[in-house]
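User: Run a structure prediction on this.
Assistant: Running it now.
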Amino acid sequence: MPELPEVETVRRGLAPAMEGARLQRLELRRPDLRFPLPRDFAARVEGRRILSLSRRAKYLLVDFEDDLTVIAHLGMSGSFRIEAEEGANLPGVFHHERSKDEKHDHVVFHLHRPESAVRVVYNDPRRFGFMELMARSELDTYAAFRDLGPEPVGNILSADYLATRFAGRSQPLKGALLDQKVIAGLGNIYVCEALWRSHLSPTRKVSTLVTPKGKPKAELALLTQSIREVIADAIQAGGSSLRDHIQADGTLGYFQHSFRAYDREGEPCLTDGCGGTVERIVQSGRSTFYCRHCQK
């Protein structure tokens, strides 16, 4: 599934093409993705101008005039590409290759500006993605948003905050960090990376990072800093990828990124002086990559 940095990369890549444009036509090539597409979807948004693109956790938000917002989730295989009359204009590349087969083009946004006309195409072979439509003023009531925790890029996330969520709990650290009610938008890849940076084991009980008085230990402060830094670095890498691939093949999604722990099973740990090897274990059905030698 795409994680916060990937969705932010998609948002930044789509924004220049979509923000300020008028949706001349919404082409729906099937009635559903993972779920049925919104009722009267095209009729409700056609002719309206797109005010902005924003993001909440792993969801892309397309804000139209008249208080309407399209909520989009890429699922496991969804991607967007931007097509102009002279051909595809592709800011961004994938870490995992996505489909370019037109038979999997399910939703097409036909956009118009005085100086140009472009198409933004949503492609999704497995159709695990979805789109919803609701009033912008009511987004806080959307089921997936109601209980979301703070974002890892905001000011609310702190060691003190995490101490309140971890105190007295025996849950493994990785599972707690993947809980979207604790931190919104943090996923498997970047949890592995943050735990490697902070030298913490994914199997460690979260309560061991909190003092008996409920205060964060130094290890929890380092973890909080590592979460912020790994997300910031990933977003920055995505931004660089957008600039470097402005004339690429039109596919927008996962960006190339050099991981320090994730997907490095059997390779030497990159922590200076460690000498350990990255291992893979399975936690709650998901692969975890870590070094037991330096992550305690």
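The first helix runs from residue 4 to 18.
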